[in-house]
Amino acid sequence: MVTSHDTERTSGRGFTLIELTIGCVLLVSIAATLRSTLLTAVESTAAARSDMGNTETVRAILTRIAYELRSSSRRGEDRNENGELDEGEDLNGNERLDSDWLATDTSIRFNRMLTDGTFTPPLTYRWTGDRIVSEHMLTSGRVIRTPVASGITGFNIAQIDDSIRIRITRKSLGRSETQSMVIAPRN
Ligand SMILES: [Ca+2]
Ligand SMILES: [Ca+2]
Prior knowledge:
Distance between the termini: 110 Å
Radius of gyration: 33 Å
Shape: rod-shaped
Bound molecules: calcium ion
Helix content: 25-40%
C-alpha cells in the first residue's frame, strides 16, 4: 500500500528520465541559439572590417597614382613639341626623349618631373586581369613591372578638359567599393 508519505519520497529522489531528456533538449536549443547569435555578430563585425579595409585600400591606390600624376607632364622633355629628341632636351641623359604621355580607357602612361627639373622615364599604370600593375622604366631602359592591387573589377581613365579622372572598383569578400579622383597633371 502506497501512503502519501511514500509519494513525497518518490518525487523528491531526483529527476525522471523524461524530465532529464527535456532539460537536455532545452539546454542544447539554448546553446545553439547563443552560438548562432554569436556567429552572426562575429560575421557582421568581420564584414564591416572588410568593408573598411577595402575602402582604405582603394583610397590608398588612388592616392598613390594621384601623387605621381600631379607631377607629370604631357610634354615631358619635348620642349619644342616636335616629337623628336633635339639638342638640350635629354635632361636626364638616357638618350631617349622622355615624352610618353598616353591615356587610354584602362591605362595611363606619363613622365614625372623631379625636383631638379628632369623627367623620369615612362611610368605606366595598367589594368590587366584583376590587377592594376605599374610598369616603371629605369634610366637603363629596363622595365620593372610591379602589381599594385588585386581584386580590381574596374579601372577607368577619362580625360576631362585638362584633368584626368581615375575610377577604381575593387571587390573584396563579395562586396564592391568604387571611388574616383580627378587629378590635374603639372602641365
Ligand atoms: Ca623636341
Ligand atoms: Ca631623356
